[in-house]
Design brief:
The structure is a homodimer. With about 475 residues, chain A is α/β, with parallel strands linked by helices. The first copy, chain A, has helices at about 5, 15-20, 30-40, 70-80, 85-95, 100-110, 125-140, 150-165, 180-190, 210-220, 245-255, 280-290, 325-340, 345-355, 365-390, 415-420, 425-440, 470-485, and strands at about 55, 145-150, 170-175, 190-195, 225-230, 260-265, 300-305, 315-320, 395, 405, 410, 440, 445, 460. Chains A, B: Homodimer.
Chain lengths: ~475, ~475
């Protein structure tokens, strides 16, 4: 008996639901790109490119984006409160402003040490600050007891799906294309993903008929459909829902008794259209129609990883619940307790995100300049990339709408599809793999997000600085098309 | 139809496995203690105590423990790298040493920004630093590719159990008493907890016969027992396993083909006995008996939350795998990818923990003083508490051995047991609730960790400063015994 076969765990006997989960954003291509990066770092000159561009993941600070100064100054004081014994040095020699010092003192007074566990649902004062923000944003009250700090939005999604999914027959409506966190988490939980297709011909709009059809088909198969995920603005599409769209989704959720999970992590990354929160529309509907919408359950998620904050590595986020049964909320509290609490420094960063310097505050001018600089930079890069795609044969891409991504359609020659099949790969995977090998640019094949049968896409972030990498995609595409034409 | 009944989610239809999970460390008593704390903060003077002592959870910095200066100085520079443009100010006016600056620069060069996602398994250079530490600690090589950074050890346990548990028939041997993370996670995963009892008469020693019996009983019932959890030093018991004990556990694991999960988060919190790692013993056995132990799979966990570091709020930790199938490791990598990565600032803190200042380094003297101060303080408090327990009628407690806890047996009068039953509570819960109401001291009833039928315990940390709270426990106990005698 070899030592391998003597092992207790092997690929065939581990948790089958983990084995079945797919997460292409950090899959084979991403792993291969990291190998290339390591090779280049060691001085390897055999590769046909000199840098790896990780356009597979919305990770702004891995690329060019600088953190916002106000945020990081406060965090530095939270990490080393002894610095607060030297206020004159901070103010006169290190460029800290009085509002930085005040905020740090306030957060320390509320969180104690950032090295201490907080309450399982987060530091109470931070939950209150989030509630205040939500009230300012939506014009409706928010309750700190309904807010849960999480380790990024991913951990919030994990919590919510853990509670909602009763068993294999539980169905969750998920948009396609979607961020694969949803399908992967549902796989791990052994619940049923009920897809509904976004309408590419309407610039990836949310089509109520498609939702109804997805829901009805699943119910006909005995699936207990109990929640709908909406990613607004969309990932990977960038599309924002109009207020009318949101009303019809909420109406449908009310009729079908579906919990609404609104993933709103790109709420400030909007170029076309306007972000309107599900919470605001729900409260408006409740006000307009007393009693009618009281039973609607809504969970909205937000994160420090996206927007102009871009602080992915800090794993900060929160979700707000509306209309949930208090006994169910108690179970959510217990569930998050098992892993104790979200990172406290990340919680503090959430507080800074929702309560940034205001006009007149000493740090406002710099904050505003940095914030707008990031916003405009993202928009410029998005358009530069889009214009490049416009020129590429067989590539179609809607105008950039928001989020951090473009998700073009690619039509590739039959010969390329055959060559992919010969390698046992999907055609979009084959295309992205060849692109990575030739240029060092890492994209994610559309199959990683889901796409209509017979269509091919890829997702790219527009975070990477410079235009050279865009040029290298254009050049690769031309060669690829010529090779397989 | 009331709006409540119209809700989609209620306590009866959510995930039953979440509903069944128990996590007493942050359960009813902890929630009640937070309510008391909030009351006191508002100036309430109706309560019979003036402060809440959270002795229910190992959360050093919530109480008296100050963070270690070297760690926090480095973290402040990672949060605000702009400070590195002012080295003279840092060195001459703010008390930073050159090794602080060097370490911060090195970590930034390896992690990029702490606001960027790292690789899913952690920053490569940090994994290498952990491997170097393990090699120094154990005298055997360690491979960075086998190390996974996690959000505290809890998240590592969650990952490992997710992979190991194939279905409801999968059994995991768990010590009783145990830290309830294990039973709660197994509930959520709908897998089977296979208890084995620690031997209180041998100061909570690990009894191989009890393990054999637990395993055999479960197998007789058709359970697929495939892993054993060892908490060493123990939580809540503090007991350290001898090298001989570890050898027999590994031998048994080899014979029965059990994956060994060694929870070693208290490895530096040892007063009696000596910490020996499972990894060291496994590698020693492999060296002594070529081939015989090659199939043993070991996962060892460590955290920044415990030890003299005590940085719970930073959610840093790691696990190391030995002997795992590469294909299984690839699934672990995929699983951790779904929630992207552990908090990067927490990863950096792990690096500082495993690679602290060495003798001769500029920061060494202060580091050493702080480290020993914390160690001695914990030991003194443990003994003070133990001496108080020694004097309490019906309370028996072994000499403090390590970890952050004492776990005494309490014998309470039959009348108190009846009064508890009348309230529908277990007797230990009743005792701890009355104690909380009378003194503001929050303990965890022994039933939260598991205890032999007919015995009653509670767990208390020995982290809280001062002796007043200890006196209040002694006084309460006397009154309680007199009331129910």
């Amino acid at each position: 008996m070899s030592s391998t076969s003597a092992r207790r765990l092997n690929i065939d006997n581990i948790n089958p639901h983990v084995r079945e989960a797919k997460y292409a954003v950090r899959g084979e291509l991403a792993v291969k790109s990291e190998e290339y990066r390591a090779k280049l770092a060691k001085g390897d000159t055999d590769l046909p490119f000199t840098q790896v561009i990780s356009a597979n993941i919305g990770n702004p600070q891995q690329l060019d984006q600088k953190p916002i100064t106000f945020f990081r100054q406060v965090l530095s004081l939270l990490e080393n409160p002894l610095l607060l014994q030297h206020e004159e040095v901070l103010l006169n020699q290190l460029g800290y402003k009085t509002d930085v010092i005040e905020r740090a003192k306030w957060l320390l007074s509320k969180a104690g040490s950032v090295g201490a566990y907080s309450a399982s649902n987060g530091v109470p004062a931070i939950r209150q600050s989030i509630a205040d923000f939500l009230e300012r944003r939506d014009g409706f009250p928010a309750n700190e007891a309904d807010i849960y700090l999480s380790g990024g939005a991913s951990s919030g999604v994990n919590t919510l799906l853990h509670i909602i999914c009763e068993g294999p027959k539980t169905g969750i409506l998920v948009p396609i294309p979607q961020y694969p966190l949803y399908t992967a988490s549902l796989s791990v939980l052994n619940a049923t993903c009920v897809p509904y297709y976004l309408d590419e011909s309407q610039n990836w709009g949310t089509d109520l008929e498609a939702i109804k059809k997805g829901c009805a088909d699943a119910k006909a198969q005995g699936v207990d459909v109990r929640a709908i995920v909406i990613i607004n603005p969309g990932n990977p599409t960038g599309a924002s829902l109009s207020e009318a769209d949101i009303r019809s989704v909420i109406d449908f959720a009310r009729e079908e008794k579906l919990v609404v999970m609104a993933d709103e992590v790109y709420q400030t990354n909007v170029f076309i259209g306007k972000f309107v929160s599900f919470k605001k529309v729900l409260r408006t509907l409740q006000k307009e129609n007393p009693g009618k919408y009281d039973s609607v359950e809504l969970a909205s998620l937000q994160s420090v990883s996206k927007g102009m904050v871009g602080e992915c590595g800090h794993r900060g986020g929160y979700f707000e619940l509306c209309g949930f049964d208090p006994k169910v909320q108690a179970e959510i509290y217990k569930f998050v307790s098992i892993t104790l609490c979200a990172p406290v420094i990340g919680q503090c960063l959430v507080e800074l995100m929702v309560n940034p310097p205001k006009p007149g505050d000493p740090s406002y001018e710099l904050y505003d300049k940095e914030y707008n600089g990031i916003f405009n930079g993202l928009k410029e890069r998005a358009y530069a990339l889009w214009r490049a795609f416009e020129k590429m044969e067989g590539v179609e891409c809607g105008e950039p709408q928001g989020s951090m991504y473009l998700f073009p359609t690619v039509k590739i020659p039959a010969k390329a599809i055959e060559a992919a099949a010969a390698e046992g790969r999907s055609a979009d995977e084959f295309y992205c793999l060849r692109l990575l090998e030739a240029t060092g640019v890492c994209l994610v094949p559309g199959s990683g997000f889901g796409q209509k049968e017979g269509t091919l896409h890829f997702r790219t972030t527009f975070l990477a600085p410079g235009t050279e990498w865009v040029g290298s995609i254009v050049k690769f595409h031309e060669d690829f098309m010529n090779k397989y034409r």
